[in-house]
Amino acid sequence: MISARGLRKSFGDFEAVKGIDVDVRKGEAFGFLGPNGAGKSSTMRMIASVSPVTSGELRIFGLDPATDGPAIRGRLGVCPQEDTLDNELNVFDNLYIYGRYFGIDRATCRDRANELLEFAQITEKAKSKVEDLSGGMKRRLTIARSLINNPDLLLLDEPTTGLDPQARHVLWDQLFRLKQAGVTLVITTHYMDEAEQLCDRLVVMDKGVIAAEGSPRELIEAHSTREVAELRFGVGEHEALAEKIEDLGDRVEVLPDRLLVYSDRGEDVVTAVIERGLQPIATLVRRSTLEDVFLRLTGRSLAD
Amino acid sequence: MATTPTRPTRPTRTDRPTGTLSAWEGMARQYDYWLTVYKRTWRGGVISSFATPLFYVVAMGVLLGGFIDADPSRLEGATSYLAFIVPGLVAAHAMTIAVSESTYPVMGAIKWHKTFFAQLATPLAVRDLVNAFVAFVVFRVASACAVFMLVLAPFGVFESWWGPVLAWLSQVLVGTAFALLTFGYSARLRSEEGFGVLFRLGVLPLTLFSGAFFPITNLGPVLEWVARLTPLWHGVSLSRMLCLDTVDWSLAGINVAVLVILCVVGWRWSVTGLDKRLEV
């Protein structure tokens, strides 16, 4: 579906994407994980065929965005980071009119719009103004709009940013259904739980380059231990204490508010720490996540 | 060049080798959008499109005009000041509508509502957005000028039946040129403060000094030539010659040529401006 080789994007002197290779296969959910400013959105806009490629090769459905942009966009669904819904149209018209841009005839457009209202669970809001919708509903409407042309490939840029936990879960459920229906999904996110939930395969991006690639499980296995012991001590003590427990795990990360000890046996780490006479304020043993992978690969956490 | 596979379950009109839509198809796909915009905004348009110029005609043409001796030799062939002022006023009005419809709405579609960004994520291209937008503005100009000319017809200000029809076309041409020029300006503008400058230093002086209210020969030889270089004067000149049946066809040819050239330049200016602005 997507093939990129040495893909670059520059804005003046600033290089947002510094030569990435990506392949997305039909039917998979593919993720770009990385902090803000990693180059994810720039990559997405190039894939969406609205932002010209600076250099390198990009093919979507085997077509070149530079010459076949409209044909590619006709088969894409795009859910941008910022809602671009038309506030002056009602909910139904947002879907209907968007469908017309794709050259879909009026009757089909109406049917599709009604189906999608149902899918997005906003049928009763059909005649409402967009402004009157909640954040979660707007997002669902944006996703519904991106599906009006039955896209072969759906691009979702930070789909759940700014949503409350419940709204996120509703959205994830819907994306999951789309995936099961065979729609290829490409998702950017800076939430590692979202990437773990939704993506079959992902690349970790940082500063315009790809730091690692694989399924969430493969990435965790390759770049982290099975478990992590989180230890919280008093303010300012973490740096000094790190040296004292270095030997207890494969690796120790110092965060401003806690120490992370990477080990396949987290409970044993906690026991050993206490045996050494150290008294953490709080401890937590958990499984490694993509956040740990990111920390390992870049030396920074995703929130930075 | 590869073509996309044809799928029977959905429209295949996007399946063109080069992927570009014809200009007509690009606009046709936005028809429903602009229809809803029109349904929502036509009431407000009626006031500004018809009432405002009517006030001008009454105040300047009838009341102020009552004090002016109508000497056709000094009024470019008009038998009354009202007959002199009407063709120019309508041309100036075409410009005003075109400019105001191409300022804030363009900036809104880029900056506030981001309509253009949403539209560009579909098979539509930048030139399709410009074409449909300007077509809508031209429709507003054309309908406003048509109603206006019809209302004025019974007042004996037109000298032939075909002249006013061609004059109306010339007013539409003025609207098109100004819509395109303004669109290009608005597409490049970062802040709406630039619109104040445009209205005060562009629209207002053009309205006052391009021959709509008085013959530009009154300006003196130097300023008269400056006035002749303004786009609006070419529209006023055409509109008036046609309404008063005093057409100098070689001058009319120049007037039309200038306005058509401005349309072409304005279209390029709009497409390149919007293209640059929407590329992020």
TrEMBL record, chain A:
The keyword Transmembrane does not apply. Pfam families: ABC_tran. SUPFAM superfamilies: P-loop containing nucleoside triphosphate hydrolases. GO terms for biological process: response to antibiotic. One of its GO terms (molecular function) is ATP hydrolysis activity. Its main location: membrane. The keyword Transport applies. It is a peripheral membrane protein. It is found in: Cell membrane. Keywords: Antibiotic resistance, ATP-binding, Nucleotide-binding, Transport. InterPro entries: AAA+_ATPase, ABC_transporter-like_ATP-bd, ABC_transporter-like_CS, ABC_transporter_ATP-binding, P-loop_NTPase. Belongs to the ABC transporter superfamily. This is ABC transporter ATP-binding protein. It comes from Nocardioides glacieisoli.
